[in-house]
Design goal:
With 291 residues, the chain is of the alpha+beta class. It has three domains: 87 residues, Winged helix-like DNA-binding domain superfamily/Winged helix DNA-binding domain (Arc Repressor Mutant, subunit A, Orthogonal Bundle), CATH 1.10.10; 86 residues, Periplasmic binding protein-like II (D-Maltodextrin-Binding Protein, domain 2, 3-Layer(aba) Sandwich), CATH 3.40.190.10; 102 residues, 3-Layer(aba) Sandwich (D-Maltodextrin-Binding Protein, domain 2), CATH 3.40.190. It is built from nine helices and twelve strands. The strands form two sheets. Strands 3, 4, 5, 6, 7, 8, 9, 10, 11 and 12 form a ten-stranded mixed β-sheet that branches. Strand 1 and strand 2 form a beta hairpin. Helix 1 crosses helix 2, helix 1 crosses helix 3 and helix 1 packs across helix 4. The longest helix is centred in the N-terminal third of the chain and has 29 residues. The chain starts with a helix and ends with a helix.
Length: 291
């Protein structure tokens, strides 16, 4: 790899036909530049330059090496210029893994707004419940909710959602309304698999309450729908049920208490991400952090 850097230095010297001018152009001491070219000649095994006190000239080998090297250096420079242009106006295909319910119930209008801001980007979304393999599969970023597994992947916190207890007016009319967190043990609670306890907070106070019911499922969307259809009390993010609250389909239960907040992360394989991915993550973060 060092030979490629020396190749670029040689091209500067050959263009300028002067070590001094080339050294000024690249911001390097004249003596260092001369030494680097000498080391390049030793590595190649041929003299590339005729040096005199008045000028330098290319040898036959130097002329051939210059013609080949110039194309390589110019291609590299063009690549950097094109990448710079991408930073100004991101483009290309953005491949994203998204949680099904969170994307359909909440993220869709935010993503649509991002698409309007960045017309050069096209989108491929994977909304399956599985955790995609960011190393083996061609995804640019995965949006993940909740606690992350330990891994070598790069996770950026882009938002938090507070959670509260909700039930329908029909359920409350039939089953009554809990007055304290302990009362939840006597109610139908729509829970995630393997969840038998909800942790609730009231200021500095915290309490763990036993919960259970007829429905156990791993879908936020269906949990919300069951709560709307009078099947129990659900612990959900406020943004997910905003329309139901506004329409009166759901009501807050134990309004002075709330569940633990849920973290939202953007996960990538590496910190070195293209502009399209960087802009997408920044846009989501700006919307989710203010939510």
């Amino acid at each position: 790899m060092s030979h490629l850097n020396d190749m670029a230095l040689f091209v500067e010297v050959a263009r300028a036909k002067s070590f001094r001018k080339a050294a000024e152009a690249v911001g390097m001491p004249n003596s260092t530049l001369s030494r680097r070219i000498s080391e390049l000649e030793k590595a190649i095994g041929l003299r590339l330059l005729h040096r005199t006190t008045r000028k330098i000239e290319l040898t036959e080998a130097g002329q051939l090496y210059y013609e080949r090297s110039k194309r390589i250096v110019d291609e590299a420079r063009l690549a950097h210029e094109q990448l710079g242009a991408m930073l100004e106006q991101p483009s290309g295909v953005l491949r994203v893994s998204l949680p099904v319910d969170f994307a359909t119930l909440y993220l869709t209008p935010i993503i649509a707004d991002f698409a309007r801001h960045c017309p050069g980007i096209t989108f491929e979304f994977d909304l399956t419940p599985r955790r995609v393999d960011l190393v083996a599969e061609p995804f640019d970023v995965a949006i993940r909710i909740g606690k992350l597994e330990d891994s070598s992947l790069i996770a950026r916190l882009i938002g938090r959602h507070s959670r509260h207890l909700y039930a329908s007016p029909g359920y409350i009319e039939t089953s009554g309304e809990p007055a304290t967190p302990a009362d939840l043990a006597e109610h139908e609670c729509v829970c995630m698999p393997k969840v038998t306890t909800w942790t609730l907070h009231q200021g500095m106070n915290k309490v763990d309450v036993s919960v259970g019911g007829r429905f156990t499922l791993n879908s936020v969307g269906m949990t919300r729908a069951l709560a709307v259809n009078d099947q129990g009390i659900a612990l959900l993010a406020e943004k997910i049920v905003a329309d139901d609250l506004a329409s009166g389909r759901l009501r807050r239960v134990l309004p002075e208490w709330q569940g633990s907040s849920v973290s939202i992360h953007a996960v990538t394989e590496t910190r070195l991400i293209p502009a399209k991915t960087q802009r997408f993550i920044e846009f989501l973060s700006s919307r989710l952090m203010e939510a």
